[in-house]
Amino acid sequence: MMAALTGLCLIVLVAACGERGRPAPAPPSASSEPLTAGDHDLTLSHNGQDRTYLLHAPAGYDPNRSPALVIALHFYPGSATGIQELAGLDAKADKDNVLVAYPDGVSGGFNALVCCGSADDVGFLTALTDHLVRTWHADPNRVFLTGISNGGDMSFRAAVESTGTFAAIGVVSGGYSGKLTTAESYVPKSPVSVITFIGGQDRYASTFQTGMKTWQQRLSCRPGPKASGVPGVTHTVASCADGSEVSVYTLPEMGHSWPGATIGSLAASSAGLSATDLMWEFFAAHPRKA
């Protein structure tokens, strides 16, 4: 997923707007958090509850350089460290000056489309984004959300309900399904591009595939085949009426896993491609649409 991600940014509500009505970057603000490179165990209060997250600030982090932001969501039951190890995003973040946040779900899960719990995770993710713009000076206009399984489902929910926050989502072994998605109107109100990876041996494969067809139909996307570069792996790319793009990789021999990962129970090191690499390139090429 590689043009440099240095220009990636987040949308956040601020008093002044920049060119073309886009929000201007938040000015530096005082913070008790250590604004330094490395891993930080942090807490954000939301709806009267302290929500924990791990923040990886890239090597050489400088708040005046306005780094990009990727938020990564874990599987269920899981934790921030689990998705951090599985996805391997930190090395890329260090290379391209990107902040990566790994939130913990309540009781090991996120209140996504079919599971888990009742927390206002859409509100939490929006608040976390706003906080990282204000405090860590992430650059508005390009913020990206990724996740696997329950975290992938949550990425779809946040893409729909957190209007204007996320430029694109990267979903691995997750889907657009469940009661909320039965409404024709349940689609993003502003463009959100999607890259997703589906394993043919995943027991949820048909659900994920149906969900992507529904998503594309509702957004008037026109998918067409594109070379995947890997024998047996199919790849389609669709341009949608709202200006977003949908990229779907189907790996027939893979199960409920993260392709290319080498660590963790959901790793699929022999998948033939790296979801992390492809996602990173996709994010770089898909800034938030005005």
Key phrases:
10-stranded mixed beta sheet; disordered N terminus; 12 strands; 24% strand; two-stranded parallel ribbon; alpha/beta; 290 residues
Shape: globular
Low-confidence stretches: 1-30
Number of contiguous helices: 6
Q: Main sheet: which strands, in order across? A: 1-2-4-3-5-6-7-10-9-8
Q: Helical percent range?
A: 10-25%
Strand content: 15-25%
Distance between the terminal alpha carbons, to the nearest Å? Answer: 22 Å
The helix/strand series, from N terminus to C terminus, equals: EEEHHEHEHEEHEEEEEH
Biggest sheet details: 10 strands, mixed
Annotation, overall tally of beta strands: 12
Using only C-alpha atoms, the radius of gyration works out to: 18 Å
Structural class: alpha/beta
The average pLDDT score comes to 89
Summarize the structure.
By secondary structure, the protein is an alpha/beta fold. Helix 3 packs across helix 4.
Write up this protein.
This protein has 290 residues and is of the alpha/beta class. The chain is built from six helices and twelve strands. The chain has a ten-stranded mixed beta sheet with strand order 1-2-4-3-5-6-7-10-9-8, sandwiched between helices. A two-stranded parallel ribbon has the order 11-12. A hairpin with a 2-residue loop joins strand 1 (38-46) and strand 2 (49-57). Helix 3 (121-136) crosses helix 4. The chain is globular and about 50 Å long.
Topology (elements, then pairings):
Blueprint: E1 38-46, E2 49-57, E3 68-73, H1 80-87, H2 90-96, E4 98-103, H3 121-136, E5 143-148, H4 150-161, E6 168-172, E7 193-199, H5 205-218, E8 222-225, E9 234-239, E10 245-251, E11 258-259, E12 267-268, H6 275-285
Helix pairs in contact: 3-4
